[in-house]
Write a structure and sequence with these properties.
By secondary structure, the protein is of the alpha+beta class. Helices cover about 70% and strands about 10% of the residues. It has a domain of about 55 residues.
């Protein structure tokens, strides 16, 4: 027996009847795309910050470097888990 659910369609805003798994897959797809965009933005921000410190002839604060390393490690864990 296929389970269905009435839900608002993401793009059209209309109520539609669709298999529950379809919505989960669609939401997962959208979240992956959003995560990819956020990762790109973070990489640009990181490069900008590091370039600014370099241009001013200064080293980034150790706390900043620690946070960046921590984010890298967490990102790697998630990436390894989802592959």
């Amino acid at each position: 027996m296929s389970r269905t659910k009435l839900k608002m369609a993401p793009r059209s805003g209309k109520l539609e009847l669709a298999p529950r798994g379809h919505w989960v897959l669609k939401e997962n797809e959208q979240r992956k795309e959003t995560n990819g965009i956020l990762t790109e933005e973070n990489n640009v921000n990181r490069a900008l910050i590091m370039t600014m410190y370099s241009d001013f002839g200064k080293e980034p604060p150790p706390e900043l470097l620690w946070h960046l390393e921590s984010l890298d490690a967490r990102h790697q864990q998630v990436t390894d888990f989802t592959e």
